[in-house]
Design goal:
Elements lengths: L4 E2 L1 E4 L15 H13 L4 E5 L5 H13 L4 E7 L2 H10 L6 E8 L2 H8 L3 H16 L5 E6 L6 H13 L4 E6 L6 H15 L5 E6 L6 H11 L3 E4 L13 H10 L1 H4 L1 E2 L7 H12 L20 H9 L9 H4 L14 H10 L6 H17 L5 H13 L1 H4 L2 E11 L2 E10 L2 E9 L2 H13 L4 E9 L8 E9 L2 E9 L2 H23 L10
Parallel strand pairs: 1-10, 2-3, 2-9, 3-4, 4-5, 5-6, 6-7, 7-8, 8-9
Antiparallel strand pairs: 11-12, 12-13, 14-15, 15-16
Helix pairs in contact: 1-2, 1-11, 2-3, 5-6, 6-7, 7-8, 8-9, 15-16, 18-19
This protein binds 3-methyl-2-oxobutanoic acid and zinc ion.
Zinc ion (ZN) binds next to loops.
């Protein structure tokens, strides 16, 4: 048997994924996802863009200090201050990487950078050499590479390599490429650059739905690192999906002759964790991790699968860790068993948070007949992780009365030890409660979306509410979970307001000054 070529998986869920409109992860959430990514054995975690904001810097630093195993990368433009911020954020990492980039396509150079080719080459030389003064591992990306002049691009890459970059990335930034063309383009650039020993990487966006196909074509053409995100989240139509790329390389290793180091049995839980934390649902027909990815409805298919799974299944649900998720824990389970089960679910909590989770679990056991792993995960995500830094205002109590077409709500909130109560009417209990909350906090955020989903099927299932709020140019997603859908809805709204306050604080905007207490 011939040895398989190892493809490195560079996960950018926490950076490019988090750039998707409406996604905002706090530090604790990013840390949890990074710990899970490390368990799943990704090769590189791009933890963020430290120069973007103090919050981004702190999140990258936390991941770099705490997550061992993968390379921890931080993104930086070619500016000095970006590179210094990236270097300082990843200083504590076991394997730090600075990832610097500049655009190389005519349209970007002329209209965005307003730079000539020579100026861009000078930026590349200076930035890569400066990054190398801090770390040995420097990656350089040519933004919008797929729409760049190949000869110039090769010159840019030679400059980066000659100044110490060991990974060169060819992004299809705007998702313009098509597979055959992109494969040939990548091969041409590798040959024209002519620097052996470089790790060639690709980073494909999904504007035409071809991000994974383009990445696969690039692998065939010689790329040995693929940049991707869980569930394909990212700017606009997103990035190449990690789970699809990994399973395509594995399932068709006969054709590509490649392998990755990913523990694929963690893909399913990783995907649901990302979906819960970002508030971006996984469509049922999503390849590899959708609820229907391994469901067989048609009689002929069911018969075939019963005779032999290979008739209609090219991968098995076990390969990707698709669930069977009854939680074999009860009210009387000890802390040790509880921690073990939580870790199997992919959550890595401090002692303090584990105790909070256990209290939550015991409360849930009192309210629900069967507590599933999904129930517990939803409650931990919304009550512990999401609340870790954004919780400033807390729901103390509420009372609603419902009539046909209208509702009345009385809500008590607490902010910094001070309580405030107000009441309002609305066209239903949730509307009334939201009005009461707005009166208390003295803010009028616009409710752009409101959804409520049940985590499992039973009538006592946990309801998970999500709201998108916008206010003075800021936009956030708030989440809340409870066995009571009105409580879940109220918590989601308060979570949204807390996130708005936190974002405003980071940006120095004053939103809130009235009347709590
Ligand atoms: O899409 C892109 O070009 C990027 C680069 C910063 C790698 O995200
Ligand atoms: Zn990108």
């Amino acid at each position: 048997m011939t040895a398989k070529h190892r493809v490195q998986i560079f996960d950018t869920t926490l950076r490019d994924g988090e750039q998707a409109p409406g996604i905002n992860l706090n530090r604790e959430e990013k840390l949890q996802l990074a710990l899970q990514l490390a368990k799943m054995k990704v090769d590189v975690i791009e933890a963020g863009f430290p120069a973007a904001s103090p919050g981004d810097f702190e999140a990258v630093k936390l991941v770099a200090d705490r997550v061992k195993g993968p390379v921890i990368a931080a993104l930086a433009r070619t500016r000095h201050e970006d590179i210094e911020a990236a270097a300082s954020a990843v200083r504590g990492a076991e394997k730090p990487r600075i990832h610097t980039f500049i655009a190389t396509s005519p349209v970007h150079m002329e209209h965005k950078l307003k730079m000539t080719r020579d100026q861009v080459l000078e930026e590349v030389r200076r930035a890569v050499a400066y990054a190398r003064t801090f770390v040995d591992d420097v990656e350089f990306s040519a933004e919008d590479a797929s729409r760049s002049d190949p000869e110039f691009l090769a010159e840019v890459f030679r400059t980066a390599a000659d100044n110490g970059a060991s990974t060169l990335n060819i992004p299809d930034t705007v998702g313009y490429a098509v597979p055959e063309e992109f494969g040939a383009f990548v091969r041409g650039i590798i040959d024209a650059t002519g620097r052996p020993g470089i790790t060639w990487s690709v980073h494909c966006h999904n504007d035409l739905g071809m991000a994974v196909a383009n990445s696969m074509a690039a692998v065939r053409a010689g790329a040995s690192q693929v940049e991707c995100t869980m569930n394909g989240i990212g700017e606009r139509a997103g990035n190449a999906s990690l789970e699809e790329t990994v399973m395509a390389l594995r399932t068709r290793s006969d054709s590509y002759g490649c392998e990755t180091g990913i523990d694929t049995t963690r893909l399913f839980s990783m995907s649901s964790q990302v979906s819960r934390m970002t508030g971006f649902p996984v469509p049922p027909n999503k390849a590899v991790v959708g609820a229907n990815a391994f469901a067989h409805e048609a009689g002929i298919h069911q018969h075939g699968v019963l005779c032999n799974k290979a008739t209609y299944e090219i991968m098995s649900p076990e390969d990707v860790g698709a669930p069977g998720s009854r939680l074999v824990l009860g009210k009387h389970s000890g802390k040790h068993a509880f921690r073990q089960r939580i870790e199997e679910m992919g959550l890595f909590l401090s002692d303090e948070k584990l105790s909070e989770a256990m209290t939550l679990f015991k409360e849930l056991c009192d309210r629900k007949e069967i507590v599933t792993a999904e129930d517990l995960e939803a409650m931990i995500n919304t009550e512990i992780l999401a609340a870790a830094e954004s919780r400033r205002i807390v729901l103390r109590s509420f009372l609603v009365q419902v009539g046909k077409g209208h509702g009345t709500a009385t809500v008590t909130l607490e902010d910094d030890g001070r309580e405030a109560t107000d009441a309002a009417t609305g066209n239903g209990p949730v509307d009334a409660a939201y009005r009461a909350i707005r009166r208390i906090v003295g803010m009028e955020p616009e409710l752009e979306t409101y959804t409520i989903n049940s985590v499992t099927e039973a009538s006592d299932a946990i309801g998970e509410a999500r709201v998108t709020l916008s206010f003075e140019g800021l936009r956030v997603t708030g989440r809340g979970a409870s066995t009571d859908v009105i409580e879940a809805s109220i918590k989601a709204y308060i979570d949204g307001i807390n996130r708005l306050l936190q974002k405003a604080a980071v940006k120095g905007v004053r939103l809130y000054g009235k009347n709590v207490g």
